[in-house]
Amino acid sequence: MEDEPTFIKYYGIISALESQKNSLQEIIVENCDYNEVFEVLKNCKILETLRLRIYCLQFLSLWCFINDIQEEELKIQVIQFAEILPLTLQYLDLGDTWQPYIDIVLSNCNAPLKKLLIYHLNDEKYTRALIEFCIRNKALNYVAVYRDSDLDENFRKEVEAYVTNVALVPRARIVVNC
């Protein structure tokens, strides 16, 4: 089984997912590195719970839509998500959906990130959370903001005044497209 080409190995899984795309509500994906599986999951109409067990995760780009979740429940889930980020994670790209919760993510994340991409830095609450995260996480080297216009100059100066080991850089400089 180990020597089988990837497309043959995952054909049965992909076929099963495609046949269940209208009824699948929950799935556990364990150590899967085959993008086709995730492409099929995008088409699952009522998928509510996706559990990932990836033991050596280093790069994570998380763009998602958060609908139909009460605010307090969502905050609890964001805390739980941040707390379980693996210690192997070095790169985290949080899309715009996560921006209202970036302070919660940063306050509860213990992953030794080297690169962090956030949507914008133009709020005191998010700036304070970023500074505290940078001080706590000595591995962090780069923080990128999606557009320079989303990086308030006063907040940039505040971050740079407190944190000397982290560079605020344009998104294009550190983005990883997998």
TrEMBL record:
Domain of life assignment: Eukaryota
Name this polypeptide is given: Armadillo-type protein
Organism: Gigaspora rosea
